[in-house]
Specification:
The complex is a heterodimer.
Chain A lengths: L7 E12 L2 E12 L3 E5 L6 H8 L7 E6 L2 E2 L2 E4 L2 E4 L2 H8 L2 E4 L11 H11 L5 H14 L15 H13 L5 E5 L7 H14 L5 E5 L3 H7 L2 E6 L2 E6 L1 H6 L4 H10 L1
Parallel strand pairs in A: 3-10, 3-11, 8-9, 9-10
Antiparallel strand pairs in A: 1-2, 1-4, 4-5, 6-7, 11-12
Chain B lengths: L4 H8 L1 H4 L3 H32 L4 H16 L2 H14 L8 E3 L2 E3 L1 H27 L3 H9 L4 H31 L11 H12 L2 H37 L6
Antiparallel strand pairs in B: 1-2
Classes of the chains: A alpha/beta, B mainly alpha.
Chain lengths: 258, 247
Amino acid sequence: MSSDNPGLAIEFRGVNKWYGSFHCLTDVNLQVERQAVMTIIGPSGAGKSTMLRCINHLERIDDGEILVEGQLVGYREVGGKLKELSDGQVAQRRQGIGMVFQRFNLFAHLSAIDNVAIGPIRVLKTPRDEALDQAAILLRRVGLAEKAASYPAHLSGGQQQRVAIARALAMRPSIMLFDEPTSALDPEMIGEVLAVIRDLVGEGLTMVLVSHEIGFAREISTRVVMMDGGLVIEEGTPAQVFGAPRSERTQAFLSKVY
Amino acid sequence: MNFDWPIFIWYLWPPSAFDDPRILQGLEATVGVALVAMVIATGIGLVGALARLSRRRAFRALATAYVTYFRGTPILVQLFLVYFGCIEFHIYGFEPLDIGPIVVTGALQAGVIAIALNHGAQMTEIIRSGIIGIDRGQMEAARAIGMTYGRAMRWIILPQALRIILPSFGNQVNASILITPILITIGGQDLFGVFLAINGVNYHPIELFLDCSAYILVVSMTWAAIQRRLERRVGVSLAEARPRSNA
């Protein structure tokens, strides 16, 4: 596409999405700079997760375009019209975008280390031994070296989510998307997952996080986006959005969650 | 009329029964037709299930029509359609086929095809329900690490679906062993066909059909033992993956 800002990791241009007659994303324009840590906040049903899932084309958009590192997501332009990319091409673009889900979604039939290694083995064609070595390093990094052989069902929620983060990192992504990574966790496990995410800041990754952890967002984010009703209500630094929200809806939302 | 023990024992006890070479041939026919048909049926089922779950409407429609017909009509009708239909329209003549030392008669070939088509429709539904029984999040997570649909199916979805599929698959294999007597209607000599022929000569229906039952029972019980072992092997990872009560 034309005139892309090379400093941008992700860019939404006039994005619209409907579920049937429900307009779940309305004219979303958003820029995420490389190595930024952006947190998306807002009430449930605001379109936060949908927006995140559009970035790696797990959801299709109906109008507008999303660029990831200057390239269209899920589509290519042919003579002014957008054509959906083939399955293999979409898969290739997703390799550089790690994703962490609210419900972990670890592969239930694989041990922790195999969960982490399977992407490199089956997608990147990394030799098995090498992939397992890398997976072991990543598990150590998320504090789960001793759980390498455990199956997901034998891990706590917090442990599963940390394995899921390691699984995403194993593909060496430049962008990490976190879709409410602590919302399904018991309170005592939230801290261990946030610690792992905090540890990733400053590693050169671009991170986009949907979260209700306001304190955490304030601490690690470089940008905060407030969404409601499919609209971006306001965007700014944590100090701006949390300290002096301009929109009444943001004020109302923050007064409820704080 | 008295139960003829000598006849009963003679045809029950393999060393004496196999004096009549037709019995071993019949046994081979029953097992061979059932197993080859199930290998083909499983292949059909995999393709059929993926077609039924496809985004392409034509694939879905085709697979649905296939499943609807072959699950909704008697297998005997399907057998006749395959056998006489192919001969009548010169599609395939069902000539005897020499495979090394064994000769596969046309009736047995038709049996393999008909049972494969019929059970392929069943396997389509069995595999489909196995696939849709897997949480959607598994596919999303696989796609998110850059797997194509095919890779995600192969490495993430199908290995997990196998646990759901295997018990029904085992029943289907058993059913295919038990259905082979339909072959007598087109002149095929499965084990039942052989005993029927023997009975036609010396008329001892109780003794002979009990013997016939015993042989088929051994085959089906052998399969049941194999199935238990397969299920246990897959079940190990099932126990591993069973959610903890607090999860």
